[in-house]
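Re: that backbone. Tokens:
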């Protein structure tokens, strides 16, 4: 039985990675998770310069999940290269660096800086606000998404995964736009914009008013979007959104995802990724699947 998957020419030992921002860059989880057993580690978002993030409070629990408005706080690319890459290189896992920015130049600078670093793939977070366009995310406009993909591809030496926002009218249209821009793969979904109010204090719970909703409550929406994106493009899809166990991961694969990414549940159960790797293997044995590829997108 073969659990290996190939994403844009990069072989992973199994289809499980972690969602950016839920796993740091691995060090926080090494006592709970054998990083050698993950298909890939996807890092927290990295920008060209350090970002402070949003004011607090910036995390809240919600029914069936959580909301965050952390604002992509990160130490910047230089510290990341100096500290986090050497840490991850100790392990036999693929390294996917999540890249964020507020302008085309920001993204390209990070892609260029990483070109000669020993990382395997770049995941471009286009849910960031485009400062030049008055704050609308790059990932909400198909033309902007295609342009940012083209720009990053000019500098990137590694395969480029474009991470799509669900806060759009048509996820299929966005997937096609980044494919046209030269994306090597897509990952989806990022968080869904939400809001929570403290009715006793009559105030917003998050200082930012709105935040990204994640966790099991959004899983059925994510499955639908993964299915639509996978049927719209020829490039591989990495599915994420509320994966809480192996069955949720298998569901994503059957819908068309070549790999899956586990996010919010890492906070709830730090060992969840190991359970999902084992659970997918058990599912394959139970139903006689020889490889992950035999399962991808078979539910039409």
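Recovered sequence:
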């Amino acid at each position: 039985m073969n659990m290996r998957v190939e994403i844009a020419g990069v072989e992973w030992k199994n289809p499980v990675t972690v969602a950016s921002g839920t796993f740091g860059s691995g060090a926080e989880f090494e006592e709970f998770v054998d990083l050698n057993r993950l298909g890939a580690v996807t890092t927290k978002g990295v920008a060209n310069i350090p970002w402070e993030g949003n004011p607090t409070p910036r995390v809240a629990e919600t029914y069936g999940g959580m909301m965050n408005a952390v604002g992509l706080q990160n130490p910047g690319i230089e510290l990341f290269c100096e500290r986090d890459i050497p840490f991850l290189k100790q392990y036999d896992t693929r390294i996917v660096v999540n890249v964020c920015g507020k302008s085309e130049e920001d993204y390209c600078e990070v892609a260029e800086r990483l070109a000669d670093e020993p990382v395997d793939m770049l995941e471009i977070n286009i849910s960031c606000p485009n400062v030049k366009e008055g704050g609308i995310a790059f990932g909400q406009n198909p033309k902007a998404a295609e342009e940012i993909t083209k720009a990053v591809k000019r500098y990137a030496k590694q395969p480029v995964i474009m991470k799509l926002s669900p806060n759009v009218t048509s996820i299929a249209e966005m997937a096609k736009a980044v494919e046209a821009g030269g994306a090597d793969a897509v990952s989806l979904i990022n968080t869904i914009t939400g809001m929570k109010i403290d009715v006793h204090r009559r105030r917003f719970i998050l200082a930012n008013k709105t935040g990204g909703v994640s966790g099991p409550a959004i899983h059925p929406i994510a499955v639908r979007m993964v299915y639509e994106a996978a049927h719209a493009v020829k490039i591989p899809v990495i599915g994420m959104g509320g994966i809480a166990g192996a069955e949720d991961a298998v569901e994503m694969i059957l819908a068309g995802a070549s790999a899956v990414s586990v996010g919010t549940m890492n906070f709830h159960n730090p060992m969840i990724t190991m359970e999902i790797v084992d659970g997918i293997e058990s599912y394959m044995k139970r139903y006689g699947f020889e490889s992950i590829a035999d399962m991808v997108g078979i539910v039409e």
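The chain has eight helices and 16 strands. Residues 31 and 270 are 9 Å apart (CA to CA).
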